[in-house]
């Protein structure tokens, strides 16, 4: 059997003297080549195999040319030439195919290395959202801005004058006790943390001539015992409209419009008599329960109604403090607890979660 070493000898030395023997010799050689490249492809060392077979000086095919073909006897020379060409074509063809296969394999492994696994969880970037209270304020502001109100803000530290007296709550008036006020220690003027946003009614009317149509969002403070519905601080939005011809009907219409906008077109409104020193008459505004729609459930304590906020026609006594003419002017005012409205609308059961800033809670209101 021919081995690749046999190419060092001439055909005459090997006793190959017929075209048949030539053919079988080249068949053996071709098998040897195929075994060679089968081995090399697994080690991917194609270059060594190429030099061994196709090297210009010492390659097997070159040796065959020198040792087999050139000195070949006349009778077998054409057969040697043909077989050599066939072998050469086979060898070169194989190397081309193998090189291409090797490139593909390399590309595939590189691709496998670099590949992005789309099934892996991505890097999550936490994006903040507007707080539920902020969102509720924006909703309230949207509603009132759409009917001509404007937003003003005022100080959280107030004087007793703005927080009480000018609002018709004189000293020793029982309404002061209800308010459980925080006083600023050491303040000669008796500064306090405002207990409601109503002082901004006075501050606005002092500065501006009628007509006035404002809403006042802001924080207010009361010495309540904190529980699931009370805290030291909560959020209000005040409203005030004063003009020459504002009637109780305007008040009622505005309130009903607000309730429908905030709770949906099916919500109905009810006014219950109430008392605030700075409004006369005063009312509590109720709406049909947003949970049962008015038929009665646990949330509305089976009454079908939910208390929303306090309101009323501006008490003429208040105009006296701001140099407005009570004979010519009239208006209405309201004060809403924003936390309450947010809890109600979004089904939040506990007040404290609104200030604890637990992201598990906040995330529910994107
Ligand atoms: N200031 C009142 C409160 O905090 C609410 C209110 C505002 C009532 C305006 C009537 C008019 O309870």
Task: Describe this structure as you would to a colleague.
The chain has 366 residues and is of the alpha+beta class. The chain folds into 2 domains: 5-114, no CATH class; 132-362, 2-Layer Sandwich (BirA Bifunctional Protein, domain 2). The protein is built from 14 helices and 9 strands. The chain has helices spanning 11-14, 19-43, 46-54, 60-69, 77-114, 132-145, 160-163, 174-178, 199-207, 248-263, 316-321, 338-346, 353-356, 359-362, and strands spanning 150-151, 157-158, 192-193, 212-221, 233-243, 269-276, 279-288, 305-314, 330-337. The strands form 2 sheets. A 7-stranded mixed sheet has the order 1-4-5-9-8-7-6, sandwiched between helices. It has a two-stranded antiparallel ribbon with strand order 2-3. The protein is rod-shaped. Bound molecules: phenylalanine.
